[in-house]
Amino acid sequence: MTSVSLVGPGEGPIVLDVPAPAAPVRVPTNRRYLMCPPEHFTVEYSINPWMDPSRPVSTELAMRQWTALKETYERLGHRVETIEAQPGLPDMVFSANSGTVVDGKVLGARFRAPQRAAEADHFRRWFLDNGYRDVVMPECTNEAEGDFTWTGRYLLAGTGFRTDPRAHAEAQEVLGVPVVSLQLTDPRYYHLDVALFVLDDDLIAYYPDAFSPGSRSVLRRLFPDAVIATEADAACLGLNAVSDGRHVVLPVEATHLAEQVARRGFEPVFVDISELRKSGGGPKCCTMEIRD
Asked: Where do the catalytic residues lie (predicted)?
């Protein structure tokens, strides 16, 4: 065994024991992200099993955690754009749910929950104000990168709780990429991005028990070398992670998952998202990737 010192959100490094054999050399690529500060974050309604309006929520702490996440991306060399938070939209911080961008084409969102519906138009206007003209707002319910995950080859598309399965065909037509439909079955993992994330080209991590038997078979065929997450990995929203091809930004509690990705040659980078998790969100939920 060899000890690997990783970046943690608090004082001092987090040390993991990783087997000594050489892993593949991973090369990061610079990314561009769109984020929204949680200036109005709270939990005042419940639209997923994580949300409990009776629990205390600190907007100040959520803001500190979000700022640390943003600064982590910038320290890793990524470009972060921001959109102005709007009063009355406490979940707007979860920008990943409001757009899917592939090759400069933008497919907007249509939320299932009426409490979030107004978010979609704010993001639509952001794209238009920033020079995007190929912006399509969907006819079918589609919660964007919450349920759409671009691998570089396929658009993995989740359904079962939020996104209408008909939105998968709509995404294929608008974005012009092949779509693979996946059925989610566990209400705790109501979006694809809390059950699966892309590490690098043709390599994903996922929690099998979040998916139907047929979808698990599809994932095994497409990604036979995938990192398989445990129940504990999923339960701390460890799979709501962001990879740039080398660095993997994930919740500080996801130590087992971090060990697994480190064995594959990636560098885990821990962040604390405990307050944002009260609304069922983590690093990826706060991060829309803009792929021009």
From this structure: 191 (proton donor), 285 (nucleophile)
- Tell me which of 168, 191, 236, 247 is the catalytic residue: 191
Is residue 206 within 8 Å of 196, Cβ to Cβ? yes
- Amino acid sitting at position 79: R
CA dihedral 190, 192, 194, 195 (to 10 degrees): 110
Supply the pLDDT for residue 101.
98
Enumerate the domain spans of the chain.
2-289
Average pLDDT rounded to a whole number, residues 64-82:
98
3-state secondary structure of 18: strand
- Report the first-to-last Cα separation within the chain, whole angstroms: 41
Q: Is 256 a catalytic site residue?
A: no
Range of lowest pLDDT (11-20, 59-68, 202-211)? 11-20
Predicted model pTM: 0.92
Instruction: Give the CATH superfamily of 2-289.
Output: L-arginine/glycine Amidinotransferase; Chain A (3.75.10.10)
Residue 219, class by beta-carbon neighbours within 10 Å (0-12 exposed, 13-18 middle, 19+ buried)?
buried
122 included as an active-site residue: no
